[in-house]
Design brief:
By secondary structure, this protein is an alpha/beta fold. Helices cover 30% and strands 8% of the residues. It is globular and about 50 Å long.
Amino acid sequence: AHISLMSGVEVRNEETNAVLMSQQDRDTIVSTFGRAGYHTIALMPGLSSEWPEGAFYRFDRIYGELSLQYTGPQFGWWAIPDQYAIGAIDRVDPRPAPGQPRFVFFPTISTHMPFSPLPPYQRDWARVLTAAPFDDADLGGSTFQNQQF
């Protein structure tokens, strides 16, 4: 679904995707927003390795797991809660020009089911960006650090 939305081409199989990714001069929703003056960002907390497909879309910046620098407790299949990723965007990618609009592609992770345990909502957004974003009571009294899933 992401590929179809971002490219404007219905992609239902790997063969179609491979052909699409070979079209380096094709417009995408990202390149269209870029031409309109938007700073284009892929905010991908679940991305733990290189993403060659990112070049096809022509993002200005791509932020994966390592560049987001999350140090809080890990949850479920991926370490980084969505709330942290949203809160970290201004730290990892300050606006290049005052008032410049941003287009952010953000495939959420922790708000999808059936991933569990789910991170609790932290009302204090400044605390979300710290090494201790939650109290033990928020975590149900147990530690999630280094838990295997």
